[in-house]
Design a protein that fits this description.
The chain is α/β, with parallel strands linked by helices. The protein contains 8 helices and 13 strands. Helix 2 links the parallel strand 3 and strand 4. The chain is globular. Bound molecules: zinc ion.
Length: 309
């Protein structure tokens, strides 16, 4: 059985974002605190006891406090159920939470070489001592089984694969610390429960849906998918920014080539948007965008939502 907890559903900045006065952020600060959401991350477990984080958001500390499944075991002075962290990219909203895991508890960090190179080149991540935190490279199209703290298999198989996307913003126009060009900056994950054969997909960043991606997702029990913006020019139209969704490596929810339309014909039991930016009107209950997404079978999750497969 796979248990998945949505630790946070928001894109970078969260809801509300510290410096944002957009309609969603204003409502989240005042009459609609239920709109508040932390930055995107999920936790997954095969046994209900040991958990793996998919990405470590800057809000991780708050997320762990709010999630009883991830609290230390009663009666132990130092303990965490978190056995590992799997990174799908090197954006700030995927890696900054690692700095909140520096208090000496062992775990394994799984990431592509390109992401590990970025962590190595930023000395502040050395707070994760090599003795406690093993950095395990993962490869595109090569499945791996993350281990439990005693080295035994977790029963979860993770298959990383390349999805259309972009490298981290803060590296735009700069040499990549890995010294190479190639795939690995934006990964999707298929996460499989070896006992039941059930699996789900995690794609918190994806620039477009290719035919190859469609055939992967066909038949999945659950898909978490990039829900950053409702429309590609959303930030520009709202006066919030100068970048399009595509310019940031994110597909829009709406439109002919958007996520809703692109995945509409596929046999996917549950579709959940993740990494939803505070500019996205889908966050507002009762908006026509929200109705459109829900009628198309999509869930807009609240932080803490648990899904069992
Ligand atoms: Zn906002």
């Amino acid at each position: 059985m796979l248990r998945v907890v949505v630790l946070g559903a928001a894109a970078g900045g969260g809801v509300p974002q510290w410096n944002c006065g957009c309609p969603v952020c204003r409502k989240a600060r005042s009459e609609h605190p239920e709109l508040q959401s932390t930055q995107a991350s999920i936790a997954v477990s095969g046994d209900g006891e040991h958990w793996f984080l998919i990405n470590a958001s800057p809000d991780l500390r708050q997320q762990l406090t709010a999630t009883p499944q991830l609290h230390p075991k009663p009666g132990q002075l130092r303990h965490s159920p978190i056995a590992g962290v799997i990174l799908t990219n090197s954006e700030v909203d995927a890696v900054a939470g690692l700095l909140s895991m520096r208090e000496g508890s062992p775990f394994t960090l799984y990431a592509h070489d390109r992401v590990l190179a970025i962590l190595r080149s930023n000395s502040i991540f050395n707070v994760l001592n090599d003795k406690n935190v093993v950095r395990q490279p993962i490869e595109v199209d090569k499945a791996f089984e993350p281990a439990l703290p005693d080295g035994s298999p977790s029963g979860i198989e993770v298959l990383p694969f390349e999805v259309p996307g972009k490298g981290a913003w803060y590296l735009e126009g700069k040499a990549h610390p890995s010294g190479t060009e190639g795939v690995g900056d934006t990964l999707g994950l298929r996460i499989l429960d070896k006992a039941s054969g059930k699996y789900f997909y995690f794609l918190a960043a994806c620039a477009r849906v290719t035919d190859d991606l469609k055939s992967r997702l066909e038949g999945a029990a659950l898909v978490f998918f990039d829900g950053t913006v409702w429309r590609d020019d959303e930030l520009i139209v709202a006066g919030l920014g100068t970048k399009t969704g595509q310019g940031m490596g994110h597909i829009a929810m709406s439109g002919k080539d958007g996520a809703i339309e692109s995945l509409a014909g596929l046999d996917i039991a549950r579709k959940v948007f993740l990494h939803i930016n505070n500019s996205n009107p889908v966050l507002l209950n009762g908006s026509h965008e929200r109705r459109h997404a829900e009628q198309a079978g999509w869930l807009i999750p609240a932080d803490g939502t648990e899904i069992v497969l």
